[in-house]
Design goal:
By secondary structure, the protein is mostly helical. It has helices at about 1-65, 70-100, 105-115, 120-130, 135-140. Helix 1 (about 1-65) packs parallel to helix 3, helix 1 packs across helix 4 and helix 2 (about 70-100) packs antiparallel against helix 3 (about 105-115). InterPro entries: 4pyrrol_synth_GluRdtase_dimer, GluRdtase_dimer_dom_sf.
């Protein structure tokens, strides 16, 4: 009788252990995917900064070519150009983060750096400037 009572208990413990292993494996995989995704952030930031620099340079050229343009019109053109650039970059930057979450996904960030001729030092500088960003919720409340 004692043996009959122990077997279901042992099976339940084994089932619980398997469930715990599955949970841990899933959470580790999610954590690693998040880490890989975060590694792409400096490249995305550098790309957006590069786009912003191009926009500002072109708006400056426009100012020199059309000095008579009214300030309200100039501001509207600037807002429109920035919105267009933001919309063009949105889907690819979101997608590269998604793709980067998979093992080997860093190749997509490398492709962005190559295609847009992003300066590796600029990308590293962005990454270094984001280090203080890693704070706990307790740090934020101070």
């Amino acid at each position: 009788m004692d043996r009959i009572q122990r077997e279901p208990s042992a099976r339940a413990a084994a089932t619980d252990a398997d469930a715990a292993r599955t949970i841990v494996a899933t959470e580790v995989a999610n954590y690693l995917a998040g880490q890989r995704m975060a590694e792409v952030t400096p490249t995305v930031t550098a790309l957006r900064q590069r786009a912003a620099d191009v926009v500002e340079a072109e708006l400056l050229r426009l100012d020199h070519r059309l000095p008579e343009l009214e300030a309200t019109h100039r501001d509207e053109v600037a807002k429109t150009v920035r919105r267009v650039v933001d919309k063009l970059l949105h889907a690819p930057t979101v997608r590269v983060k998604q793709l980067a979450s998979a093992p080997g996904g860093d190749s997509y960030a490398e492709a962005l750096r190559e295609l847009f001729e992003l300066d590796p030092q600029a990308v590293e500088a962005v990454a270094a400037s984001e280090l203080p960003f890693m704070t706990t919720d307790l740090d934020k409340s101070e």
